[in-house]
Amino acid sequence: MFDYIVVGAGFAGAVIAERLASCSNKKVLVVESRHHIGGNTYDYYNDEGILVHKYGPHIFHTNSREVYDYLSQFTAWRPYEHRVLASVDGMLVPIPINLNTINQLYGLHLSSLEVDSFLASKAEKKDRIVTSEDVVINKVGRELYEKFFKQYTRKQWGLDPSELDASVAARIPTRNNCDNRYFTDTYQAMPLHGYTRLFEKMLSHPNIKVMLGTDYREIEGIIPYKKMIYTGPVDYFFDYCYGKLPYRSIEFRFETIEAERYQPTGTVNYPNEHPYTRVTEFKYLTGQKHPKTAVVFEYPQAEGDPYYPVPRPENAELYRKYQLLANDLPNVYFTGRLATYKYYNMDQVIAQSLTLYKKINSTTKNERPINGQKLPTYEP
Protein backbone atom coordinates (compact mmCIF):
# COMPACT_ATOMS: atom_id res chain seq x y z
CA MET A 1 0.00 0.00 0.00
CA PHE A 2 1.36 3.38 -1.03
CA ASP A 3 0.47 6.44 1.00
CA TYR A 4 0.49 8.57 -2.16
CA ILE A 5 0.47 8.07 -5.88
CA VAL A 6 1.97 11.06 -7.71
CA VAL A 7 0.91 11.40 -11.34
CA GLY A 8 3.72 13.04 -13.30
CA ALA A 9 7.50 13.13 -12.84
CA GLY A 10 8.13 16.78 -13.71
CA PHE A 11 8.94 19.42 -11.12
CA ALA A 12 5.38 19.60 -9.79
CA GLY A 13 5.24 15.89 -9.00
CA ALA A 14 8.89 15.21 -8.17
CA VAL A 15 9.12 18.00 -5.60
CA ILE A 16 6.12 16.91 -3.60
CA ALA A 17 7.07 13.22 -3.92
CA GLU A 18 10.51 14.01 -2.49
CA ARG A 19 9.05 16.06 0.39
CA LEU A 20 6.48 13.41 1.29
CA ALA A 21 9.12 10.68 1.22
CA SER A 22 12.00 12.40 2.98
CA CYS A 23 10.17 14.69 5.42
CA SER A 24 7.00 12.73 6.21
CA ASN A 25 8.30 9.18 5.70
CA LYS A 26 5.48 8.41 3.26
CA LYS A 27 5.65 5.65 0.68
CA VAL A 28 5.18 7.25 -2.73
CA LEU A 29 4.63 5.84 -6.20
CA VAL A 30 5.42 8.24 -9.06
CA VAL A 31 3.67 7.32 -12.31
CA GLU A 32 4.83 8.98 -15.53
CA SER A 33 3.32 8.47 -18.99
CA ARG A 34 6.54 9.42 -20.77
CA HIS A 35 9.56 7.16 -20.79
CA HIS A 36 11.71 9.52 -18.74
CA ILE A 37 11.63 11.62 -15.59
CA GLY A 38 12.07 15.39 -15.55
CA GLY A 39 8.96 16.48 -17.42
CA ASN A 40 9.62 19.22 -19.97
CA THR A 41 13.03 19.97 -18.45
CA TYR A 42 14.38 16.55 -19.42
CA ASP A 43 17.83 16.77 -21.00
CA TYR A 44 20.06 14.17 -22.63
CA TYR A 45 23.25 13.77 -24.66
CA ASN A 46 22.57 13.56 -28.38
CA ASP A 47 24.41 11.26 -30.80
CA GLU A 48 27.32 13.72 -30.96
CA GLY A 49 27.62 13.85 -27.18
CA ILE A 50 26.13 17.34 -26.80
CA LEU A 51 23.76 17.97 -23.90
CA VAL A 52 20.40 19.23 -25.24
CA HIS A 53 16.95 19.93 -23.79
CA LYS A 54 14.40 17.67 -25.44
CA TYR A 55 11.52 20.12 -25.00
CA GLY A 56 13.29 23.38 -25.70
CA PRO A 57 15.46 25.60 -23.50
CA HIS A 58 14.79 25.73 -19.77
CA ILE A 59 16.74 28.41 -17.93
CA PHE A 60 16.42 28.45 -14.16
CA HIS A 61 15.85 31.83 -12.50
CA THR A 62 14.13 32.85 -9.29
CA ASN A 63 13.91 35.50 -6.61
CA SER A 64 12.98 32.86 -4.04
CA ARG A 65 15.79 31.83 -1.71
CA GLU A 66 13.61 28.97 -0.51
CA VAL A 67 13.29 27.51 -4.01
CA TYR A 68 16.98 27.99 -4.80
CA ASP A 69 18.10 26.40 -1.53
CA TYR A 70 15.68 23.53 -1.99
CA LEU A 71 17.04 22.61 -5.42
CA SER A 72 20.61 23.08 -4.18
CA GLN A 73 20.17 19.86 -2.20
CA PHE A 74 20.14 17.96 -5.49
CA THR A 75 22.56 19.85 -7.74
CA ALA A 76 25.57 22.08 -7.88
CA TRP A 77 25.09 25.15 -10.06
CA ARG A 78 26.68 26.77 -13.08
CA PRO A 79 26.15 30.55 -12.97
CA TYR A 80 24.39 31.63 -16.16
CA GLU A 81 22.58 34.81 -17.18
CA HIS A 82 20.51 34.34 -20.31
CA ARG A 83 20.67 36.89 -23.12
CA VAL A 84 18.33 37.04 -26.09
CA LEU A 85 18.63 38.92 -29.37
CA ALA A 86 15.80 39.64 -31.80
CA SER A 87 16.19 39.69 -35.56
CA VAL A 88 14.62 43.01 -36.57
CA ASP A 89 15.27 45.20 -39.61
CA GLY A 90 18.32 43.15 -40.59
CA MET A 91 19.91 43.60 -37.16
CA LEU A 92 20.21 41.52 -34.02
CA VAL A 93 19.11 43.72 -31.11
CA PRO A 94 18.58 42.98 -27.39
CA ILE A 95 15.20 41.82 -26.17
CA PRO A 96 13.47 42.80 -23.86
CA ILE A 97 13.61 46.28 -25.38
CA ASN A 98 16.13 48.42 -23.54
CA LEU A 99 18.34 51.48 -24.10
CA ASN A 100 20.74 49.49 -26.29
CA THR A 101 17.85 48.22 -28.42
CA ILE A 102 16.51 51.70 -29.16
CA ASN A 103 19.91 53.24 -29.83
CA GLN A 104 20.94 50.42 -32.16
CA LEU A 105 17.62 50.25 -33.97
CA TYR A 106 17.33 53.97 -34.63
CA GLY A 107 21.03 54.94 -34.76
CA LEU A 108 20.66 57.16 -31.70
CA HIS A 109 22.77 57.93 -28.60
CA LEU A 110 20.05 58.43 -26.03
CA SER A 111 20.56 58.39 -22.27
CA SER A 112 18.23 56.58 -19.85
CA LEU A 113 16.18 59.73 -19.27
CA GLU A 114 16.03 60.44 -22.97
CA VAL A 115 14.88 56.94 -23.86
CA ASP A 116 11.97 57.29 -21.43
CA SER A 117 10.88 60.41 -23.28
CA PHE A 118 11.43 58.67 -26.62
CA LEU A 119 9.19 55.73 -25.68
CA ALA A 120 6.60 58.07 -24.20
CA SER A 121 6.48 59.91 -27.52
CA LYS A 122 5.85 56.62 -29.32
CA ALA A 123 3.27 55.26 -26.84
CA GLU A 124 -0.43 55.41 -27.64
CA LYS A 125 -2.15 55.65 -24.28
CA LYS A 126 -5.19 53.43 -23.80
CA ASP A 127 -8.06 54.15 -21.45
CA ARG A 128 -8.60 50.43 -20.86
CA ILE A 129 -5.96 47.69 -21.04
CA VAL A 130 -7.76 44.50 -22.05
CA THR A 131 -5.62 42.70 -24.63
CA SER A 132 -1.93 42.06 -25.24
CA GLU A 133 -2.04 44.55 -28.10
CA ASP A 134 -3.28 47.20 -25.67
CA VAL A 135 -0.40 46.49 -23.26
CA VAL A 136 2.34 46.90 -25.86
CA ILE A 137 0.93 49.87 -27.76
CA ASN A 138 0.21 51.65 -24.48
CA LYS A 139 3.83 51.13 -23.42
CA VAL A 140 5.96 51.52 -26.59
CA GLY A 141 3.62 52.47 -29.44
CA ARG A 142 2.55 50.83 -32.67
CA GLU A 143 5.89 50.92 -34.53
CA LEU A 144 7.77 48.83 -31.97
CA TYR A 145 4.68 46.68 -31.53
CA GLU A 146 4.80 45.84 -35.23
CA LYS A 147 8.56 45.18 -35.21
CA PHE A 148 8.80 42.99 -32.12
CA PHE A 149 5.45 41.68 -30.96
CA LYS A 150 2.69 41.36 -33.52
CA GLN A 151 3.98 38.62 -35.80
CA TYR A 152 5.84 36.80 -33.02
CA THR A 153 2.61 36.58 -31.03
CA ARG A 154 0.68 35.39 -34.07
CA LYS A 155 3.20 32.60 -34.62
CA GLN A 156 3.42 31.67 -30.94
CA TRP A 157 -0.29 31.63 -30.17
CA GLY A 158 -2.01 31.31 -33.54
CA LEU A 159 -3.94 34.43 -32.55
CA ASP A 160 -3.54 38.15 -33.06
CA PRO A 161 -2.39 40.01 -29.90
CA SER A 162 -5.76 41.79 -29.96
CA GLU A 163 -7.35 38.39 -29.23
CA LEU A 164 -5.13 37.51 -26.26
CA ASP A 165 -5.45 38.43 -22.62
CA ALA A 166 -3.29 41.32 -21.42
CA SER A 167 -1.36 38.96 -19.12
CA VAL A 168 0.60 37.51 -22.06
CA ALA A 169 2.35 40.76 -22.97
CA ALA A 170 2.45 42.01 -19.38
CA ARG A 171 5.19 39.44 -18.69
CA ILE A 172 7.58 41.28 -21.05
CA PRO A 173 9.35 44.30 -19.50
CA THR A 174 10.74 47.41 -21.17
CA ARG A 175 13.94 48.88 -19.68
CA ASN A 176 15.53 52.30 -19.81
CA ASN A 177 19.03 50.99 -19.01
CA CYS A 178 21.66 48.88 -20.78
CA ASP A 179 20.87 45.62 -18.98
CA ASN A 180 20.85 43.03 -21.78
CA ARG A 181 19.96 40.13 -19.50
CA TYR A 182 16.68 38.44 -20.31
CA PHE A 183 15.95 37.88 -16.61
CA THR A 184 16.86 40.07 -13.65
CA ASP A 185 16.15 37.57 -10.87
CA THR A 186 18.46 37.29 -7.87
CA TYR A 187 19.32 33.66 -8.59
CA GLN A 188 20.17 32.71 -12.17
CA ALA A 189 21.95 29.43 -12.83
CA MET A 190 21.85 26.08 -14.58
CA PRO A 191 22.16 22.65 -12.93
CA LEU A 192 25.85 21.84 -13.29
CA HIS A 193 25.26 18.32 -14.60
CA GLY A 194 21.87 18.92 -16.19
CA TYR A 195 18.23 18.65 -15.15
CA THR A 196 17.91 14.89 -15.54
CA ARG A 197 20.72 14.31 -13.05
CA LEU A 198 18.96 16.69 -10.65
CA PHE A 199 15.73 14.70 -10.94
CA GLU A 200 17.55 11.41 -10.47
CA LYS A 201 18.84 12.63 -7.11
CA MET A 202 15.49 14.12 -6.13
CA LEU A 203 13.69 10.85 -6.75
CA SER A 204 16.37 8.54 -5.31
CA HIS A 205 14.80 8.28 -1.84
CA PRO A 206 14.11 4.65 -0.86
CA ASN A 207 10.48 5.52 -0.13
CA ILE A 208 9.93 6.53 -3.76
CA LYS A 209 9.19 4.12 -6.58
CA VAL A 210 8.93 5.32 -10.18
CA MET A 211 6.93 3.77 -13.04
CA LEU A 212 7.68 5.17 -16.51
CA GLY A 213 5.72 4.77 -19.73
CA THR A 214 2.54 4.24 -17.71
CA ASP A 215 -0.77 6.07 -17.72
CA TYR A 216 -1.96 6.22 -14.12
CA ARG A 217 -5.30 4.77 -15.19
CA GLU A 218 -3.53 1.54 -16.12
CA ILE A 219 -2.69 0.87 -12.48
CA GLU A 220 -5.79 2.31 -10.80
CA GLY A 221 -7.60 -0.48 -9.01
CA ILE A 222 -4.48 -2.67 -9.22
CA ILE A 223 -1.93 -0.89 -7.04
CA PRO A 224 -3.49 0.30 -3.77
CA TYR A 225 -2.86 3.83 -2.49
CA LYS A 226 -4.47 6.25 -0.06
CA LYS A 227 -4.23 9.65 -1.76
CA MET A 228 -3.24 11.12 -5.10
CA ILE A 229 -1.19 14.10 -6.22
CA TYR A 230 -2.21 14.86 -9.80
CA THR A 231 -0.04 17.02 -12.10
CA GLY A 232 -1.45 16.03 -15.48
CA PRO A 233 -4.06 17.82 -17.61
CA VAL A 234 -7.07 18.55 -15.44
CA ASP A 235 -9.51 18.04 -18.34
CA TYR A 236 -8.10 14.55 -18.99
CA PHE A 237 -8.60 13.65 -15.32
CA PHE A 238 -12.31 14.38 -15.72
CA ASP A 239 -12.60 12.65 -19.12
CA TYR A 240 -13.05 16.00 -20.91
CA CYS A 241 -16.59 16.16 -19.55
CA TYR A 242 -16.78 19.90 -20.29
CA GLY A 243 -14.60 19.72 -23.40
CA LYS A 244 -10.85 20.04 -24.01
CA LEU A 245 -8.88 22.96 -22.64
CA PRO A 246 -6.96 24.65 -25.49
CA TYR A 247 -3.16 24.59 -25.51
CA ARG A 248 -0.42 25.67 -27.87
CA SER A 249 2.31 23.18 -28.66
CA ILE A 250 5.72 23.37 -30.33
CA GLU A 251 7.59 21.28 -32.86
CA PHE A 252 11.28 21.19 -31.96
CA ARG A 253 13.73 20.67 -34.82
CA PHE A 254 17.26 19.93 -33.67
CA GLU A 255 20.41 20.40 -35.71
CA THR A 256 24.03 19.60 -34.97
CA ILE A 257 26.36 22.18 -36.53
CA GLU A 258 29.95 21.47 -37.61
CA ALA A 259 31.27 24.50 -35.74
CA GLU A 260 31.95 25.48 -32.15
CA ARG A 261 29.45 28.36 -32.32
CA TYR A 262 26.35 28.99 -34.42
CA GLN A 263 24.99 32.30 -33.13
CA PRO A 264 26.19 35.18 -30.91
CA THR A 265 24.05 34.38 -27.86
CA GLY A 266 21.99 31.64 -26.24
CA THR A 267 18.71 32.47 -27.98
CA VAL A 268 17.79 34.52 -31.04
CA ASN A 269 14.14 35.44 -31.55
CA TYR A 270 12.65 35.76 -35.04
CA PRO A 271 9.51 37.87 -34.66
CA ASN A 272 8.77 38.50 -38.31
CA GLU A 273 9.27 36.69 -41.61
CA HIS A 274 10.69 33.33 -40.44
CA PRO A 275 8.31 30.39 -39.79
CA TYR A 276 10.02 29.61 -36.46
CA THR A 277 9.91 31.84 -33.38
CA ARG A 278 13.39 31.32 -31.94
CA VAL A 279 16.63 29.38 -32.14
CA THR A 280 18.55 28.30 -29.04
CA GLU A 281 22.14 27.08 -28.90
CA PHE A 282 22.55 24.78 -25.91
CA LYS A 283 26.28 25.15 -25.25
CA TYR A 284 25.70 28.71 -24.05
CA LEU A 285 23.31 27.33 -21.43
CA THR A 286 25.31 24.30 -20.36
CA GLY A 287 28.86 25.62 -20.70
CA GLN A 288 29.84 22.36 -22.40
CA LYS A 289 33.08 22.30 -24.39
CA HIS A 290 32.68 20.49 -27.69
CA PRO A 291 34.04 20.98 -31.23
CA LYS A 292 30.46 20.90 -32.58
CA THR A 293 27.33 22.67 -31.42
CA ALA A 294 23.61 21.88 -31.23
CA VAL A 295 20.67 24.18 -31.82
CA VAL A 296 16.90 23.85 -31.76
CA PHE A 297 14.40 25.69 -33.96
CA GLU A 298 10.92 26.18 -32.47
CA TYR A 299 7.81 26.00 -34.64
CA PRO A 300 4.63 26.70 -32.65
CA GLN A 301 1.61 24.60 -33.59
CA ALA A 302 -1.92 23.83 -32.47
CA GLU A 303 -1.52 20.07 -31.97
CA GLY A 304 1.00 18.12 -29.92
CA ASP A 305 2.13 18.02 -26.31
CA PRO A 306 0.35 20.71 -24.23
CA TYR A 307 2.82 23.50 -23.36
CA TYR A 308 1.04 26.84 -23.16
CA PRO A 309 -2.52 27.37 -21.87
CA VAL A 310 -4.24 29.83 -24.18
CA PRO A 311 -5.18 32.85 -22.02
CA ARG A 312 -8.61 33.90 -23.23
CA PRO A 313 -11.71 34.54 -21.08
CA GLU A 314 -13.69 31.60 -22.46
CA ASN A 315 -10.81 29.23 -21.63
CA ALA A 316 -10.55 30.58 -18.09
CA GLU A 317 -14.26 29.99 -17.67
CA LEU A 318 -13.94 26.42 -18.94
CA TYR A 319 -11.09 25.79 -16.51
CA ARG A 320 -13.18 27.13 -13.60
CA LYS A 321 -15.72 24.38 -14.26
CA TYR A 322 -13.01 21.75 -13.90
CA GLN A 323 -11.61 23.56 -10.87
CA LEU A 324 -14.93 23.23 -9.08
CA LEU A 325 -14.93 19.48 -9.72
CA ALA A 326 -11.35 19.22 -8.48
CA ASN A 327 -12.08 21.14 -5.28
CA ASP A 328 -14.76 18.64 -4.34
CA LEU A 329 -12.53 15.56 -4.44
CA PRO A 330 -11.59 14.42 -0.91
CA ASN A 331 -8.20 12.75 -1.47
CA VAL A 332 -6.83 14.17 -4.72
CA TYR A 333 -4.58 17.22 -4.89
CA PHE A 334 -3.94 19.13 -8.11
CA THR A 335 -0.68 21.01 -8.67
CA GLY A 336 1.45 22.21 -11.57
CA ARG A 337 0.88 23.88 -14.94
CA LEU A 338 -1.39 21.29 -16.51
CA ALA A 339 -3.46 20.55 -13.43
CA THR A 340 -4.14 24.24 -12.73
CA TYR A 341 -4.19 25.40 -16.37
CA LYS A 342 -1.72 28.22 -15.88
CA TYR A 343 1.67 28.98 -17.38
CA TYR A 344 4.15 28.98 -14.50
CA ASN A 345 7.89 29.46 -14.59
CA MET A 346 9.87 26.56 -13.14
CA ASP A 347 10.43 28.26 -9.81
CA GLN A 348 6.71 28.97 -9.48
CA VAL A 349 5.86 25.31 -10.08
CA ILE A 350 8.39 24.29 -7.41
CA ALA A 351 7.03 26.89 -4.97
CA GLN A 352 3.48 25.72 -5.62
CA SER A 353 4.36 22.11 -4.77
CA LEU A 354 6.36 23.14 -1.71
CA THR A 355 3.34 25.12 -0.53
CA LEU A 356 1.03 22.20 -1.16
CA TYR A 357 3.32 19.89 0.81
CA LYS A 358 3.26 22.29 3.79
CA LYS A 359 -0.52 22.29 3.63
CA ILE A 360 -0.73 18.50 3.50
CA ASN A 361 1.82 18.16 6.30
CA SER A 362 -0.02 20.65 8.47
CA THR A 363 -3.32 18.87 7.92
CA THR A 364 -1.75 15.52 8.80
CA LYS A 365 -0.12 16.86 11.96
CA ASN A 366 -3.39 18.37 13.16
CA GLU A 367 -5.21 15.15 12.30
CA ARG A 368 -7.96 16.96 10.44
CA PRO A 369 -9.93 14.94 7.90
CA ILE A 370 -9.46 15.94 4.27
CA ASN A 371 -12.85 16.95 2.90
CA GLY A 372 -11.67 18.47 -0.34
CA GLN A 373 -8.96 20.99 -1.04
CA LYS A 374 -8.58 24.28 -2.83
CA LEU A 375 -6.18 24.33 -5.74
CA PRO A 376 -2.88 25.80 -4.50
CA THR A 377 -1.84 29.22 -5.71
CA TYR A 378 1.52 30.89 -5.90
CA GLU A 379 2.11 34.59 -5.59
CA PRO A 380 5.44 35.63 -7.20
Class computed from helices, strands and strand pairing: alpha/beta
Approximate shape: globular
The radius of gyration over CA amounts to 22 Å
What amount of the residues lies in strands? 15-25%
Classify the helix fraction into a percent range. 25-40%
Distance N to C terminus: 37 Å
How is the main sheet built? Answer: 7 strands, mixed
Q: What is the count of DSSP helices, taking H or I runs of 4+ residues?
A: 13
Mean pLDDT: 94
Give the low-pLDDT segments. Answer: 367-380
**Which strand order does the major sheet show?**
8-7-13-14-15-12-16
Order of helices and strands: EHEEEEHEEEHHHHEHEHEHEEEHEEHEHH
- The total count of strands amounts to 17
Key traits:
globular, 13 helices, alpha/beta, 34% helix, 5-stranded parallel beta sheet, 7-stranded mixed beta sheet, 17 strands, 380 residues
Structure, explained:
The chain has helices at residues 11-24, 65-71, 99-106, 112-122, 132-157, 166-170, 195-202, 216-219, 234-237, 282-286, 313-327, 337-340, 346-365; strands at residues 2-7, 28-31, 43-45, 51-53, 60-62, 77-79, 84-88, 91-95, 187-191, 208-211, 225-230, 247-257, 267-269, 278-281, 293-301, 308-309, 332-334. It is of the alpha/beta class. Strands 8-7-13-14-15-12-16 form a 7-stranded mixed beta sheet. Strand 1, helix 1 (11-24) and strand 2 form a beta-alpha-beta unit. Helix 1 packs parallel to helix 13 and helix 4 packs across helix 5. The longest helix has 26 residues, at 132-157. The radius of gyration is 22 Å and the shape is globular.
Helix-strand blueprint:
Layout: E1 2-7, H1 11-24, E2 28-31, E3 43-45, E4 51-53, E5 60-62, H2 65-71, E6 77-79, E7 84-88, E8 91-95, H3 99-106, H4 112-122, H5 132-157, H6 166-170, E9 187-191, H7 195-202, E10 208-211, H8 216-219, E11 225-230, H9 234-237, E12 247-257, E13 267-269, E14 278-281, H10 282-286, E15 293-301, E16 308-309, H11 313-327, E17 332-334, H12 337-340, H13 346-365
Parallel strand pairs: 1-2, 1-11, 2-10, 7-13, 11-17
Antiparallel strand pairs: 3-4, 5-9, 6-9, 7-8, 12-15, 12-16, 13-14, 14-15
